[in-house]
Amino acid sequence: MNIIMMGAQGTGKGTVAGILSEKTGWPQISTGDIFRKNLEEKTELGIEAGKYMNAGNLVPDEITVPMVANRLNEEDAKAGFILDGFPRTIAQAEKLDEILKEKNKKIDMVINLTTPREETIERILTRRVCSNQECKATYNLVMHPPKVEGVCDKCGAELVQRKDDSSRESINKRLEIYDTQTAPLVEYYEKKGVLRTEEVSTKVNRLGNDVADDVLRDIKGE
Ligand code: ADP
Ligand code: ZN
To answer: Phi and psi of 155, rounded to 5°?
Structure first.
């Protein structure tokens, strides 16, 4: 099954995508993670993308779209995939449709996570990530803290704050881009009949793992 995870920064889309990937075997394809890995390894792509990322701007489509197309060509994406962080604009969604059409494929489900804005900002500020790029586990100092402060439960590496999570300016910029450029995708996929909106909020006592459970149940029931 081919799935897209949508949701503003801090809604927990990476967490949901990670659980779904683990349980289904379909790879989680996170454009942000691929960019960060390249940046860490100082590849040409990473250095170029880094110029946009730290300020919270979108990396240009000339870089992003071929990168996703190549990733989707890999063997492990044949049976299904979970896109996390792509597409982020209508233009990217249209490019994705073209890429998939060539392969006789389509998007089967778009999971749109919604969370009150105050809650997402708080979550971004308290988010910590594993510095080991092979692990990339995500924690939250309030909701999901590591067992030992500053240390990843899974691999023991140091936990760090993403550069773009530490500045209010960058967070605001990313949320603004989400609202203006990414949110219109909700209607785009609603029209295609594949949208599934899920509220994730402590207010309704519903978190990412609850959404993942429900989605998994529905996938298996098919
Ligand atoms: P967040 O959703 O918290 O902004 P991500 O890890 O998804 O974090 O992305 C980090 C950065 O990588 C983005 O701010 C942007 O610069 C870049 N990026 C990720 N996905 C895309 C995309 N589809 N198009 C353009 N830039 C992207
Ligand atoms: Zn780790």
So the answer is: -130, -5
What whole-number distance in Å separates Cα of residue 78 and Cα of residue 115?
Answer: 32
Reported as a pLDDT band with limits 50, 70 and 90, residue 39 is very high
Whether 50 lines ligand 1, by a CB cut-off of 6 Å, is: no
List residues, by chain if needed, whose CB lies under 5 Å from ion ligand 2. Answer: 130, 132, 135, 137, 152, 154-155, 157
Task: Kindly list the strands in the beta sheet with 159-160, ordered across the sheet, starting from the edge strand earlier in the chain.
Answer: 138-140, 127-130, 159-160
- Bridge partners of residue 9, in order along the sequence: none
> pTM for this one?
0.94
Q: Residue 35 contacts by C-beta under 8 Å, 6 or more apart in sequence?
A: 45, 46, 49, 50, 53, 59
Output the pLDDT for position 222: 61
CB-ligand 1 contact for 189 (6 Å cutoff): no
Question: What H or E segment, with its residue span, contains residue 100?
Answer: helix 90-102
Measured CA to CA, the distance from residue 115 to residue 99 in angstroms comes to 31
DSSP annotation of 132: -
Report, as residue numbers or ranges, the catalytic residues: 13, 88, 127, 162, 174
